[in-house]
């Protein structure tokens, strides 16, 4: 068994190329989810692995989540339908004064080369050594363009209408300094050092061309931490991600990605990311009895099952009444209001990270959700749902939207190309 090569196709996502584990020579593979090691995350899958590796030195090495590699050259950029990782960094950049299209093209070329190397577990030119010893750890780096990018680069004619500003919502408490940005980078990895290493490398690549506008750091449960595969929990303790469109759904591609023939042409196979930093008012939430918390969401806290009965994956019965004559899933329950059938089919892929930035000046936890919603068109995904939530969601008493961004994320680069090449060389 010493030289056995285990190839495991981690992906439950038909739109993402298989994750490559061939670079590790494994003695054995023992997944917490069983030999195939497939676990459900918020987006429908997260690999759990624990394995013993021999490097020929006689000392066995533990090789676990670190061995998993997500490919860079794929139809859709990695980090959209990729299983949710344990660590995330979201960073927005503004082009520096004087930097235009030429500088932006050079930057995206540098960023793409760095992302490709790091996602393969390879060092970069001036490597800091922070990620030495670790494998790729499911690292993904995803790049997007904000509305202002097109003004700065003289590419307004190429700007998609989908990047029109999001409407104002009555419950918004947005900080403009932590909102929007010319460029957006999402980093995800199952190892914090690997994620930090990528973050530093990409920040250095920015050089004189772009400056960090804002940065947010998030996390999720570590793959393998639960006994069996589970959807993620958020900092309110709820199972969060159950109702997400699944890659196996017939209309998944259509809902989440711009078609191959879509317009503008440079956005073919791309997607639009709505990013909201949503503070959770945890001191208030944690005083609410669990039964009442469940009424707020419309699902059981322990297992995510709808209040109408069944298990996590049972469909909600929105018309079911209890013996008291009341709807068992209240009419202001978050899961009811946000359900596609209540919103003309509007759906999005929610791929969030939790965040915790300590205690804020007012003495309460600065913690919540780095909400990232993916869709082919924000006007048929996030916007109608948030409009409805804004009008009467029971959850709104316990959350506060503090920043917002909307980014056009082009399709994955073909071999030899960099991300956004079709736009920048159009
Ligand atoms: C505008 C979109 C949404 C925002 C903003 C949002 C914030 C938010 N949600 C939770 C917790 C849960 N959300 C759940 C379901 C759910 N939420 C949205 C949309 C937004 N949520 C959708 C489309 C759905 C799915 C509805 C469905 O198809 O049934 C759930 C239930 C479990 C699940 O399906 O994921 C929870 C829990 C928080 C804490 C939050 C802001 C901090
Ligand atoms: Fe939600």
Describe the overall structure.
The chain has 426 residues and is of the alpha+beta class. The chain has one domain (70-426). Helix content is 18%, strand content 21%. It has nine helices and 14 strands. It has helices at residues 101-119, 147-152, 192-206, 252-256, 282-285, 290-297, 334-338, 382-392, 421-424, and strands spanning 26-29, 38-39, 46-47, 51-54, 60-63, 87-95, 140-145, 183-189, 210-219, 271-280, 349-350, 353-359, 365-375, 399-409. The strands form four sheets. Strands 10, 11, 12, 13 and 14 form a five-stranded antiparallel sheet that branches. A hairpin with a 5-residue loop joins β12 and β13 (365-375). α1 (101-119) runs antiparallel to α3. The longest helix has 19 residues, at 101-119.
